[in-house]
Amino acid sequence: MKKLIYYAGVMTVIIMLLPMIIVRSCGPAPVPEPKDEAEPVKICEISVYNHLTGVTERVDLEEYIKCVLAAEMPADFDMEALKAQAVAARTFAYGRISGVYRSKQGVHDGIDVCTDSGHCQAWMSKESAMKRWNILFASRNWARISKAVNETRGIIAVYEGSVANTLFHASSPGRTENAEDVWSGKSVPYLISVESSGDEASKGYITSVAVSVGELSEKLNKTYPHAELEGDITEEIEIIDFTAGGRVKTLRVGSITMKGTEFRSMLGLRSACFKIDFIDDDLMRITTTGHGHGVGMSQWGANALAKTGGTYREILRHYYTGIDIIGISDYEAIAKPN
Ligand SMILES: [Zn+2]
User: Fold this and answer.
1) Ligand 1 center–CA 108 separation, angstroms
2) Are 303 and 320 within one domain?
């Protein structure tokens, strides 16, 4: 009888506990102990002034870089050249965001960048880029640009612990320029003349324009009101010397001595690497080689390096002497130690 009462008691306990056991085993799994938190992905935003619409937007830095890449470099360039361009463009943008570099006063004060290539960097919306490209290649082009940006996410170039000024241009005539030969000022250790090969593959690498003496005289007088052109034109223009990068450094035009870059700007030439041939008493032919100011990375040279196996890091280190290539998070850890 005692045994019977004992078994009845055990069964009662089991019957009472069973639902609790079942409910517990079907409920939510216990919350695991939190592990060490992974480093959060840094969200970096940039304010962009659209110079065509007058609208300013804050956008994700990486999305902005995709639109710069779409406007600055042909999407069918080698992937490593696209990546080098992405890092150069991101470094420029981050220089503005971080306040290391500022834009010219009065154009878009308080806003990081604008979409005017003549002032900041070229920029093109995804929608515009897709329309501009051949419909057969548009999706592929955007995918290539996205890949180049995504695979270099957050990476910038720095020199001795400070954000580098990663200037770039379309093509160079064999060598890039020293920064101080293009813009007056101190030399920049990482913006010095280096070899650039393969640039001749670019469209318009060598271009000729005809300029009449009348046109030259008119433009000269706009810039230099007291300049005089007298006598035989062949005697009036004289190239005096060249830069380390092979462009015209100084020349004399009539009574004025000017920099090759000023002559280029005055006549809207593609490059300060030019030669002048006199066709007759009234007309001359100016032939330029390369395109752009010539400082920093040559885009066509970068593509040529990439085609011979150069990685984006090798391309950047070639054109920006002595730089380091690091993540923005690492840079900020160095720049602003906690
Ligand atoms: Zn701007």
Assistant:
1) 6
2) yes
Ligand 1 centre to CA of 165 (Å) is 15
| Distance from residue 144's CA to the centre of ligand 1 (Å) | 26
> 115 CA distance to ligand 1 centroid (A)?
6
In angstroms, what is the span from residue 61 Cα to ligand 1's centroid? 16
Number of structural domains found in the chain = 2
Q: In this predicted model, what pLDDT tens digit does every residue of 208-244 receive, in sequence order?
A: 999 998 899 889 989 888 888 777 777 889 999 999 9
Task: Kindly state whether residue 315 falls inside one of the protein's structural domains.
Answer: yes
Q: What is the DSSP string of 92-118?
A: HHHHHHTTSS-PPTTTSTT-SEES-TT
Helix axes 312-319, 299-307, angle to 10 degrees: 140
Which residue range is the domain that position 256 belongs to?
Answer: 206-289
Q: 23-50: per-residue pLDDT in tens? A: 333 333 443 444 444 444 567 999 999 9
Q: Yes or no: say if 103 and 173 are a contact pair by the CB < 8 Å rule.
A: no
* pLDDT one-digit tens code per residue, 59-77: 999 999 999 999 999 999 9
Measured in Å, residue 287 CA sits from the centre of ligand 1 at 31
What's the gap in Å between 114 CA and the centre of ligand 1?
4
**262: closest CA among 279, 240, 234?**
240
Find the 127 Cα to ligand 1 centroid distance in Å: 21
The whole model's pTM is what? 0.84
Compute the radius of gyration of the chain from its Cα atoms: 31
Residue 122 C-alpha to ligand 1 middle, in angstroms?
Answer: 9
Domain presence at residue 190: no
Together in a domain, 301 and 284: no
